[in-house]
Fold:
Amino acid sequence: YIVGALCSSVAIHRSISKIQKLIDAFLPTWKDGFWMIVVPERIPSFSWYRYMVISEEDFRHHPSVLVHEEAHLRKHHSWDLVLFSLVGILHWFNPLVWMTKKELQQLHEYEADQEVIRQGIDATEYQLLLVQRAVGPKLYSKANSFKQHKLKNRIAMMHKEKTNSWG
Structure:
């Protein structure tokens, strides 16, 4: 049990260290309650606590990415991911914890996508951007990344009618 918990801790620490190293490498700019870092390299944009890391290409040409990552920040999705990472350290042997974490990440993506559509960004253009970004490495697994695996579900969710909040 202790070896498994230790391995989980090391993996999580490595991922968070990688994120922190990138954040520390650039000068952040304060924007509407969070820090924004524009990276000249082509990286997958992501958010982590009060930081949004966005590639210069996305910043200049894809405002939907900015809205998407800002939604993650405003809804404090990083806290959920950290909580599930801590639970994952204690329950590393339980597949339900890891499946629940993946579902939670998918829910975060649905919420951020909904915010993009709510802001008036063309859904078809946004979906095309999602498809274009579906290829490539996922570098920062502990952060809320613009690129996610279940792309078909995300696109389908954008077309669903919103149900009554009471229901």
